[in-house]
Write a structure and sequence with these properties.
By secondary structure, this protein is of the alpha+beta class. It folds into 2 domains: about 40 residues; about 140 residues, no CATH class. It contains 6 helices and 8 strands; from the N terminus they run αββββααβαβαββα. Strands 1, 2, 3, 4, 5, 6, 7 and 8 form an 8-stranded antiparallel sheet that branches. A hairpin with a 2-residue loop joins β1 and β2. The longest helix is centred in the N-terminal third of the chain and has 36 residues. It is globular and about 60 Å long.
């Protein structure tokens, strides 16, 4: 009879040991699965990198609006692009786009009449004190402002203020304080 009890105990011990191994393996699999299932590094998209956060007001049809939240990134040595929202809520609508184009590009390629109508000088806008660089140290904010000062801006407003949907029109707001330039001012090396 003792042998029979010992055989039953051995079978229960083997069963318990096997069950323990299975449960341990399942636990390890479930713990490791999120790591195993994750793909490699996330593929970058053109929307990534708009991390320079700036606020500035705009003027459209004589009405000052904003300040607008610009989320910008350099896309080349001569262009910075900004996605512009009315506020910084994560669900805010993209209402405008602005391009910061190096003055070394705009001056020889954009006629003065076009520049006076659609562009503005970021050096003048920044000097006016209405532009705020957010989410950056004072030193980084100064570097960003210095870089932006060497550019001209052109804004495309895609979503009319107060509209429930875009209507296909594109407006061109200006920087508050924008003044048309003369040919001499526009082509000045000091600009």
């Amino acid at each position: 009879m003792a042998l029979h009890i010992g055989g039953t105990v051995n079978r229960i011990s083997r069963y318990t040991l096997a069950l323990g191994f299975v449960l341990t393996a399942c636990g390890l699999y479930l713990t490791a699965r999120p790591t195993i299932a994750q793909p490699g590094p996330k593929k970058m998209t053109p929307a990534d990198g708009h991390t320079i956060h700036v606020t500035a007001p705009h003027i459209l049809n004589g009405k000052e609006m904003g300040p607008f939240h610009h989320y910008c990134k350099p896309v080349s040595d001569t262009v910075i692009e900004c996605l512009i929202y009315d506020n910084d809520d994560p669900k805010a609508l993209l209402t405008q786009v602005e391009y910061f184009v190096a003055k070394s590009v705009t001056t020889p390629t954009v006629p003065l009449r076009t520049w006076n109508t659609y562009y503005h000088d970021h050096g003048i806008e920044i000097a006016g004190g209405r532009v705020k660089v957010l989410d950056a140290s004072d030193a980084d904010a100064k570097k960003i402002a210095d870089l932006a000062s060497k550019t001209d801006g052109i804004i495309f407003s895609l979503w009319p203020e107060g509209a429930k949907a875009p209507n296909g029109t594109v407006a061109h707001p200006q920087a508050v304080g924008h003044k048309p330039m003369t040919e001499a001012e526009y082509t000045s090396p000091k600009r």
